[in-house]
């Protein structure tokens, strides 16, 4: 996996550090001092009740919203309120609760636009380095087709993205993120609204990302999935970090169990 040098410089440290970040809407604090770290090469779950601020946190980390106070570091880089395209170029990618495909493009074209800083974005390269463009386009095409094969979308490569089913759109959005070679991938409820068989597949894909060196931070309500694939868990409540640790440890945390997750976490995974 290729990482930006500044992002990977502190190889033994966390890939992401959030320090007391806040965000208010109309005087109401959606995020209220959340502080946590995301370890490298791990799958970390961000869980908590509805309204805990989970999606707002992801929006703040990815640059979709501006942070009111606090700091966010990606590796050694302060990305607080950095433009979202710059954050993406550093290797932080994200998905959405409701998949956002490029509906007017084909499935294949959705992936071909994903790689960061393509040579064809430069007029100089277009006019004076056409062989470079041809070589890069060939490499991108081969990689895109390989990813589509992996994610079960190869047969749909020439279909318009808008014609896909809900589950297929989830897979397309994830595969487009993979095409961008992320160092940190933020997944906002990747299992929501899909059938059990697809949940199993997506879980496997996320484990494969980890094996390939991608760090994952995922919002997930399905605690069976969290138990099975996540190395660490961050619990948010009322915009604050309530607890961190493994899910088995959090089941023993009376504050977490009693105040926020109640029987759902205490019951453990179903079999």
What is the CATH superfamily classification of the largest domain?
P-loop containing nucleotide triphosphate hydrolases
Q: What is the CATH architecture annotation of the largest domain?
A: 3-Layer(aba) Sandwich
Instruction: State the major sheet.
Output: 6 strands, mixed
Q: Which class of the largest domain in CATH terms?
A: Alpha Beta
Structural class comes to alpha/beta
Unreliable stretches, pLDDT < 50, 5 or more residues? 1-6
* Shape type: globular
Roughly what percent helix?
25-40%
Q: Largest sheet, order of strands side by side? A: 6-7-8-3-9-10
Count of DSSP H/I helices: 11
Average pLDDT confidence is 86
What is the CATH topology descriptor of the largest domain?
Rossmann fold
Total tally of structural domains: 2
Total number of β-strand segments? 10
Q: Determine the strand fraction and express it as a percent band.
A: 15-25%
Structural commentary:
The protein is an alpha/beta fold and 271 residues long. The chain folds into two domains: 5-101 and 182-266, Rossmann fold (3-Layer(aba) Sandwich); 104-163, no CATH class. The chain has eleven helices and ten strands. The protein has helices at residues 5-8, 54-62, 84-89, 107-112, 123-128, 130-150, 166-179, 196-211, 223-229, 247-250, 254-266, and strands spanning 16-25, 28-38, 43-47, 69-74, 77-78, 92-94, 184-188, 215-219, 232-237, 240-245. It has a six-stranded mixed β-sheet with strand order 6-7-8-3-9-10, with helices on both faces. Strands 2-1-4-5 form a four-stranded antiparallel β-sheet, with helices on one face. α6 packs across α7 (166-179). The longest helix is centred in the middle third of the chain and has 21 residues, at 130-150. It is globular.
